[in-house]
Amino acid sequence: MCAEPLISVVLPCLNEEKSLPGCLQEIKSTCETAGLRYEIVVADNLSTDKSAEIARQFGARVATVTRRGYGACVQGGLSAAEGDILVFGDADGSYPFSEIPNLVAPIVQDKADLVLGNRLNNKLQKGAMPFLNHYLGTPVLSAVLRWIHHIPVYDCNGGLRALRKTAWQKLDLRQPGMEYASEMLIEAAKKHLRYQEVNIGLRQTDANRQPHLRPWRDGWRHLKIIVKGKF
Ligand SMILES: Nc1nc2c(ncn2[C@@H]2O[C@H](COP(=O)(O)OP(=O)(O)OP(=O)(O)O)[C@@H](O)[C@H]2O)c(=O)[nH]1
Ligand SMILES: [Mg+2]
């Protein structure tokens, strides 16, 4: 990696016209204030609203991803990214992109290959995370991952992550849905990537936004892939 790595910030996006401008602005001001070399890639999952148009007008690159699903969308965006360090986070306004410098620091310092933003700390805003996810789903799935795959994870469903491009290329991720988040951790453990977490918290999003997550169905899918990944 050269002295000043290029950081690609990838936003998986499906109809996020309300929150996308704020995310783009925060990424720009954070990276510029921190003096980072960066690009923004909006991975557009065939949005029917103005998301793609907003991204282009802002000057971000748009990677159109035709395969549906969160995992397919992130993977498509990361494939289009040109950076040495890949960062990705939801475009729904829930993740503090102001944490990007803290997230990439362990990779720049060559102390980690994969860094996850941990939401479960005093930076977590009240009401930002459903009770079941906060106190049951995420802690239990993280404990199972630690136990079965020996990766020191405490917030396995965190959606703001950074990884070295060469590390991502080793992972060969295939899950098109939300299980992508667990698959990345399982594969990272198998490939012995150096793993760290950084406290980032989570923001309360627009109260009128329809949540996509279905806790029991999605939790079950994560658990299946975590157990299956052992064999
Ligand atoms: N759920 C979902 N999100 C997608 C898809 N394609 C792209 N995305 C984007 O992926 C990110 C994560 O989706 P979210 O709906 O925020 O999922 P989540 O954070 O697990 O759940 P909630 O925020 O509680 O709804 C968002 O920026 C979405 O716009 C898709 O097919 N399904
Ligand atoms: Mg979200």
Detailed description of the structure:
This protein has 231 residues and is of the alpha/beta class. The protein has a single domain, classed as Spore Coat Polysaccharide Biosynthesis Protein SpsA, Chain A, CATH 3.90.550. The protein is built from 8 helices and 7 strands. Helix 1 links the parallel strand 1 and strand 2 (37-44). Helix 5 (131-149) packs parallel to helix 8 (215-228). It is globular. The termini are far apart. It binds guanosine-5'-triphosphate (GTP) and magnesium ion.
In brief, what are we looking at here?
The chain is α/β, with parallel strands linked by helices and about 230 residues long. The protein has helices at about 20-35, 50-60, 70-80, 100-110, 130-150, 165-170, 180-190, 215-230, and strands at about 5-15, 35-45, 60-65, 85-90, 115-120, 160-165, 195-200.
Kindly list the characteristics that best describe this protein.
Spore Coat Polysaccharide Biosynthesis Protein SpsA, Chain A, 16% strand, 8 helices, binds magnesium ion, binds guanosine-5'-triphosphate, alpha/beta, single chain, 7-stranded mixed beta sheet
The biggest sheet, with number of strands, parallel, antiparallel or mixed sense and barrel status, is: 7 strands, mixed
Net shape: globular
The termini sit apart by 34 Å
Number of H- or I-type helical stretches: 8
Order of helices and strands: EHEHEHEHEHEHHEH
Tally of DSSP β-strands:
7
Low-confidence stretches: none
| CATH third-tier fold name | Spore Coat Polysaccharide Biosynthesis Protein SpsA, Chain A
Mean pLDDT: 94
Rg over alpha carbons: 16 Å
In this entry the ligands are:
guanosine-5'-triphosphate, magnesium ion
Number of domains: 1
CATH H-level superfamily: Spore Coat Polysaccharide Biosynthesis Protein SpsA, Chain A
Strand proportion? 15-25%
Q: What is the helix fraction of residues, given as a range?
A: 40-55%
Q: What spatial order of strands do you see in the largest sheet?
A: 3-2-1-4-6-5-7
Tell me which CATH architecture applies here.
Answer: Alpha-Beta Complex
Q: In the CATH hierarchy, what is the class?
A: Alpha Beta
